[in-house]
Amino acid sequence: MKKILTVVGAxxxxxxxxxxxxxxxxxxxxxxxxxxxxxxIQMSExxxxxxxxxxxxxxxxxxxxxxxxxxxxxxQGIENILIEKEPDLLLVYGDTNSTLAAALAAVKxxxxxxxxxxxxxxxxxxQPEEVNRRLTDVIxxxxxxxxxxxxxxxYKENIYNGxxxxxxxxxxxxIQNQRKAEDCSSILKDYNLIPNEYYLATIHRxxxxxxxxxxxxxxxxxxxxxxxxLFPVHPRTQKVINSMELNYSNLIVTIPLGxxxxxxxxxxxxKIITDxxxxxxxxxxxxxxxxxxxxxxxxxxTLIDGWNILSSSxxxxxxxxxxxxxxxxxxxxxxxxxxxxxxxxxxLINQL
Length: 352
Fold this sequence. Notes:
This protein has 16 helices and 13 strands. The chain is globular, with a radius of gyration of 20 Å. The protein has helices at residues 11-24, 45-50, 67-85, 97-108, 128-139, 148-156, 169-184, 187-190, 206-209, 212-223, 235-242, 259-268, 277-285, 300-304, 315-324, 340-351, and strands at residues 3-8, 29-34, 58-59, 89-93, 113-116, 142-145, 163-165, 198-202, 228-232, 251-254, 271-274, 290-293, 308-311. The protein folds into two domains: 3-168 and 336-351, Rossmann fold (3-Layer(aba) Sandwich); 178-324, Glycogen Phosphorylase B (Rossmann fold, 3-Layer(aba) Sandwich), CATH 3.40.50. Helix 4 (97-108) runs parallel beside helix 5 and helix 7 (169-184) crosses helix 12. By secondary structure, it is an alpha/beta fold. The N and C termini lie close together (10 Å). Strand 1 (3-8), helix 1 (11-24) and strand 2 (29-34) form a beta-alpha-beta unit.
């Protein structure tokens, strides 16, 4: 049986591997490596338990650090594992430091690389995710794209071989877990939330959290909205918040939520406010208006169809964007049919 080494390290990747690994393990021997890039239990372990993801065979426990240190630690750790396990393929997801580091280790050892969620671009090299996804695409052998526009991005960069539009694996995860989230999660009851009577907000990107003035501007906007704001706080954001005196009069601040709690919160929110690439896409997939506090988005289809609006971190602009975000009658199957995982495994069976 052919051997595949799968590397993950952050919350969105845990969600993505759930539907893929379930099918992959019927045909391949999979070794799952967790780099430890996200190490908080609410950002990591809870997702493996809820989504019934196999316990990682190896955890590198790299933790936090500068981009250079984190990336170099992962490269060294993954290189040792690749040499020991001798897999026929490295499978990576998304655009994190874990993604790029694992791919760099594999390409140096001449091990084929498959990249799930290839081809996304937001044309902003100041975003570490943009650097990670571009470099990973260049050295990957199999590039599974979540949208046709992602495939077109690769073609424009003269990357043709191995490109396959399969759709978005997070759509698979939503379809498979939506009903269970509604049935199992008590998030609404726990915080006395009424469906469609609250906003759901997540903020974690460094340009929104590392500068106290920027974060204060965002929080001020939340406090002035016409409904309560459910605000699960990312560990990075919490560190900044702890050093500031902020008004939370309109916010329900929580620790990071597990997958079922977060999905149920998304499904029942009035609108979603975020700077997360994954959350803005999930909002589109479940037909929720979204405001993204960022200058660019790799998910251009959400902008084209009018379900997602970009905003700066300025208080007034955020409020105006939220008031204007009412969704649209346009909602296309940009991200596939919910069977991306099956297509990925079928493609790999044919190739390996």
